[in-house]
Structure formats: C-alpha cells, structure tokens
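Changelog-adjacent note: as of this version, every example in the card shows the full chain rather than a window. The one below runs 259 residues end to end.
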Amino acid sequence: MPAADSAKAPRAPSLPAARPLLLALPFLSLLLVLYAYSSATTPAPPLALLTPSPPSPHIRMRASRYRSYDDYLRHQLNKTLDPRLRRVWATRDWARKVDAFAAAFAALQREGLLANASRALCVGARLGQEVAALRRVGVRGALGIDLAPAPPLVARGDFHAQPFPDATFDFEFSNVFDHALYPDRFAAEIQRTLRPGGVAVLHVAVHRRGDKYSANDLLDVRGLLGLFPLCDVVRVSKVDAFGLDTQVILRKKRSASRP
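Full-length structure tokens:
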C-alpha cells in the first residue's frame, strides 16, 4: 500500500552512520566549554609597560623589547603566522612530529599518566601536531590553544590567561615555556585548569638559548619546578624533542586549591 508506506516514520540512522558524531562528542563538548567561558569576562595581562616575571636565579628573562602586552602578542604572532613556517609545519614537519608525539604519549599511557578518557589540552599548539598525536593514540577529548587558531585542532587562546574554567583538564602538555613573558602566570594557568590528580607534561630546554621569539631562558630545571607549588614532581628526565632536552612530569595535588 503506497500511501501507508509514504506515511512511515523515517528510519533512525544505523550505528555506523552515527559513529562519527559519537566520536566527536568529547571534542565538541570542549569547544562548548571554550565558547561559554571565553564569552565571560576574563582578566587579561596588563597592557601597560611590562615587568616580566618572576625574579629567579634559575630563569633569565630576556631584555624586554615590548612597549605593551599587545606588542608582545604581535611579536609572537609574527612567528605563528609566518607563511613559510606554517607550510613547513603543515607538510614536511607534520608526519614526523605527529609520530614522535604519538610515541611519547603512548609511553605515558603505559605508565597510567594518560588515558583515552582524559580531557587533554595542548598549550601553545600552533597547527596542532600534538593534538593530532593525542587523538591518534585514542585521546579523543584533546584540544589545543594558540594565539592564532588552527581549526579543527587548535582554538584561540592565550597561555597567560587560558579561556577555560578551573579544573577542566585531566592532562596538559606544552613545549613553549620559553615563549612565556610571565612564566609564573603560564604555570599558574596550567595549575588552575588542571583538575586535582591531573598530569602536566612539559618539554623544555635547559641552558640552551631559544630563538628571537623566546621571552626567557631556563638555566636550571629548579626554576620551572618552583613555579608549580600545587604539583608533585613525578619525574624529570632527558628527552630528545625537537631542540628541547628535558621532560618534566607533574601531578596536581589532590588537596590543591587555586593559587
């Protein structure tokens, strides 16, 4: 009976058809958190003349060349948006970096420091190789932030004032500590947005001078560890990571409160 057939309700999509949407839900939920929180008022670093911080014998701040915080942001964006570098990051560098990051993250999974269910943030992720690596090893709720967004892997965000509520993430990774004009704020934001018991992994260069976009030089790993009073040190070890030589793994204390 044709009339009866035409009145039938459409069939629900089968599981294979719905599977991509289900897999995307953790990432979409992170984007919703980002949108909601960034719509609220978030204190930004001052735009007056800058006094880089902290005063530490283990962290050498570069002589400030910036007239304002906006001037600092513009300088950092010069590197992030450089067309030649972006072509290299997206082509020649892409596969080797994703492979290397995926191997590092898989090792953390084997140690129980990272899980497929983890909400993960990559801080200063540029085009998002480390985000792609996290998703490759099964961490679907992974997102990156950078001054310049690179959808769908990287959203806009300043690591001195992360656009997320407290205790949002189970895992955070960064290899851009040397770009922090305010190292104490960089560390405080990771501690703020990391949940108690969550893990932060930092790749840094010790006693190596960075490029012209670096804002600080780490002279001793103690300078970095001193910025994370709310965390216990899991391990400090050597690593060969694209010019960075030291891996620092921290776990936020379960009794920690916001600094």
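Structural remarks: The longest strand covers residues 194-204.
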